[in-house]
Design goal:
394 residues; alpha/beta; Nucleotidyltransferase, domain 5; binds zinc ion
């Protein structure tokens, strides 16, 4: 909750608090039995039930919010009463997702729903200033295509594939051009508005938890497996950041002290077996120059080496996951990132590896593919940007 100007308990502060409760319901949607949540529009009766406010109070609040351009109402038909939803004029938010070799940018509304998005390749060695320039260009294009003024944008969340502490990008050979950069300051200066910076796996975890395959699980783990391996951890419906903001670096769980060298300088890390770079390196002799998609295609065509390589990656992934589920007992493990495109070639051996080393109590933890696929982190960025925007601040 943000600071209010009115004194606590005063009529004005109570009014604002009640308005906030109504807006919160409109953002999060209405719980429905089989599907998790349905987003707005909701009826005024739904609003009264979900906020615990009297119907007459809800009616007054909706009228006020509508007068300020924050909500749209539509008269009901038949037995369905007047419906209410957040107005497009309430503002827009944006998400930016930097990967090892791509950038994706999206516009969203105040419920955190994606309106439009764009993805471009980006050289892994790019400097952070060039990355931000491209983000700014793509954002301007999306706004223009949506017919929205740049001033309609309220806030941005930016995902980076690295641990981030105090807004600074730490130790990442994934994006060398960003290491040591205060990403939040740099982005706010370039984009001219509030920017929140978050680890990309955390954003993927949030997205799968809210609108993806992990809906309904209070605790879940999202693994982003691309050229690096990171995890976003949801505990009691919130992203767990750890004391410095660097929680979830499961790519460097040690699986074998004598194992292959990892880019972190240690040996036998999970990342050295299960990342896309590890899989591509392992297949370099059999299929020189093959991309991950080429390897998956070869596996589908029955190439024994490709099947075996993905299976090895999956087994090692499962061994690492056994430690994760023994420690956290999530209701679900979601596998995302580029490696998720290997599907069951990766996931089935991962389940076998997990069962081999997890305690009985947690050995049946489901391991499933990301539902949001390549848009997981981007979707999380938009959701978080919407959540962090204070609608009543002005
Ligand atoms: Zn490592």
């Amino acid at each position: 909750m943000s600071q209010r100007e009115s004194a606590p308990g005063s009529t004005a502060s109570l009014r604002t608090a009640n308005q906030q409760r109504v807006l919160d319901v409109l953002r999060r949607g209405v719980p429905v039995p089989d599907d998790g949540v349905a987003l707005a529009p909701v009826t005024q009766a739904d609003l009264a039930r979900l906020t615990g406010l009297a119907p007459a109070t809800v009616s007054n609040i909706v009228r006020d919010l509508s007068a300020h351009g924050l909500v749209d109402t539509e008269p009901g038909s038949g037995r369905r009463g007047t419906t209410v939803q957040l107005a497009r004029t309430a503002g827009l938010v944006a998400g930016i997702d930097f990967g090892h070799s791509h950038i994706a940018v999206a516009l969203g509304d105040m419920t955190g729903a994606l309106i439009a998005d764009e993805r471009r390749p980006l050289d892994a060695g790019h400097g952070y200033a060039d990355g931000l320039d491209l983000a700014s260009t793509l954002l301007a294009e999306l706004l223009a295509a949506a017919g929205a003024a740049p001033t309609g944008l309220r806030s941005i969340t930016m995902g980076i594939p690295a641990p981030i502490t105090d807004g600074v990008v730490r130790s990442s050979s994934i994006l060398p051009g960003w290491v040591g950069v205060h990403a939040q300051d740099a982005a706010q200066e370039r984009l001219g508005m509030p920017v929140h910076v978050e680890n990309d796996a955390n954003l993927g975890a949030l997205a799968e938890h809210r609108v993806g395959v992990a809906r309904g699980h209070t605790c879940s783990v999202f693994l982003k497996i691309s050229s690096g391996v990171g995890a976003g951890i949801i505990i009691n419906d919130s992203v767990y950041h750890g004391s410095l903001g660097a929680a979830g670096e499961v790519g460097h769980l040690t699986l074998d002290e004598q194992g292959p060298m990892c880019r972190c300088g240690s040996r036998g890390c999970l990342e050295a077996y299960a990342s896309t770079s590890a899989v591509i390196a392992m297949m370099a002799g059999q299929l020189p120059g093959a991309t991950l998609d080429d390897i998956v295609e070869a596996a589908e065509a029955g190439n024994v080496a490709a099947v075996r390589t993905l299976e090895d990656a999956g087994l090692h992934l499962g061994w690492g996951l056994a430690s994760v589920v023994n420690l956290l007992n999530p209701g679900l493990v979601v596998v995302g990132g580029d490696m998720a495109r290997a599907g069951e070639f990766l996931l089935e051996p991962a389940r076998i590896g997990l069962r081999r080393h997890a305690l009985d109590a947690v050995a049946a933890t489901p391991v499933v593919a990301s539902q949001l696929a390549e848009r997981a982190s981007l979707t999380g960025a938009v959701l978080l940007a919407a959540e962090r925007t204070e609608l009543l601040a002005s």
